[in-house]
Design brief:
Layout (H helix, E strand, L loop, with lengths): L1 H17 L1 E7 L14 E7 L5 E2 L4 E3 L3 H14 L4 H11 L4 E3 L8 E2 L3 E7 L20 E6 L5 E7 L8 E4 L5 H4 L12 E4 L11 E4 L5 H9 L4 H52 L5 H15 L39
Antiparallel strand pairs: 1-2, 1-10, 2-7, 3-6, 4-5, 4-8, 7-12, 8-9, 10-11
């Protein structure tokens, strides 16, 4: 059971990380310039699941998908290194194109339905939320998000026509199934649009912010059962069904335990006559039973009972002082009448 629980936890964790997606990208931020006068670009990730996801050890890169896949294939033929090691080697060789999200930062634990923004300013020493690469205005910018095991989580190609102050974003931040339909994590231009950047104005500074969560099941149920009658019947049915099951279980346990107690009592009652019958070989031999009883009586009463009374012999004249009360009395002098 412990092994099954561990496997299920690892599987759910992997599925949660695959629910991360690239949600919005700005190449030229016309409203915010850093101290060097540069327009800071940023990349926004979105946790589309309903559970907290730790994005540490994930990789954000500008390498094309084909390049990464060919790199994996070539290196795996040369050695037996795992893909996470290969990604780390690629990061060390090309720090200006691959950024690994470090461990140990609480901001890398993304809450359900929450955004996190990374500054693409090429200064990773400024903090966890600063990428090691920059984006190039007036040209296509490819960005990909990889899991630690080398799986592609999401990708996007920002068009060169994107102007300063504009962002390239998904059309809807809806249900988790809308982020990657059919399990396809490839870029689909039809799901993206150009915005003026005002929708994420508060996200210009790197960090996290929340949005109102949308529950897929609640949304579907609301459409199918607007009056709530079906919900009421289901909830009451579940309660009464649970009570019925408890009643049946208590009944079964009660009968089982009462039957065991009755059988034990009957065994104790029948044990003594059964032993006598087994010794005699027949329950009709009264003489044998009487002989056994007499033998037991004689065995238990084989010795005499002592009274516990001490007696003393006064037949001889030699008496000790303690045995003769008269010798212990004070002798009175004889009385003479002439005196």
């Amino acid at each position: 059971m412990t092994l099954i629980a561990v496997i299920a936890a690892l599987t759910s964790m992997a599925q949660g990380r695959m629910d991360m997606c690239i949600n919005e990208v700005m190449v030229q931020n016309g409203n915010c310039a850093d101290q060097n006068g540069k327009c800071t670009a940023w990349v926004e990730l979105f946790n589309s699941s309903y559970g907290t996801n730790a994005i540490e050890k994930m990789f954000i890169t500008t390498f094309k998908k084909d390049y990464i896949q060919n790199y994996f294939k070539e290196q795996e033929q040369k050695s037996n290194k795992k893909r996470n090691v290969l990604l780390e080697e690629l990061r060390d060789k090309n720090p200006d194109k691959v950024y690994e999200i470090p461990r140990g930062d609480v901001d890398t634990k993304i809450k359900p339905r929450t955004h996190v923004v990374f500054c693409a300013d090429g200064t990773p020493t400024a903090g966890t939320m600063h990428l090691s690469f920059t984006l190039t205005p007036s040209s296509d910018n490819y960005i990909a998000l990889y899991d630690v095991n080398g799986d592609l989580v999401d990708e996007v190609t920002v068009p060169a026509s994107l102007q300063a102050g504009q962002s390239f974003a998904r059309k809807g931040e809806g249900l988790p199934s809308d982020m990657h339909k059919g399990g396809n994590h490839s870029f689909d231009p039809s799901q993206w649009e150009v915005r003026d950047g005002s929708s994420v104005e508060k996200a210009i500074t790197p960090g996290k912010f929340n949005m109102r969560p949308v529950n897929e099941n609640i949304a579907k149920f609301k459409n199918e059962d607007g009056t709530g009658i079906l919900l009421t019947i289901m909830s009451m049915g579940v309660v009464f069904l649970a009570l019925l099951l408890l009643y049946i279980l208590f009944k079964l346990f009660g009968k089982a335990f009462s039957g065991q107690g009755k059988e034990k009592k009957e065994e104790e009652t029948v044990a003594e006559p059964t032993a006598a019958v087994a010794a005699t070989g027949s329950d009709d031999n009264d003489e044998a039973i009487a002989a056994l009883c007499m033998a037991l009586y004689q065995h238990l009463n084989a010795h005499d009972e002592e009274s516990g009374v001490l007696t003393f012999d006064h037949s001889h004249e030699a008496h000790s002082a303690w045995g003769s009360k008269g010798n212990l009395l004070l002798h009175m002098p004889e009385r003479h009448d002439n005196h």
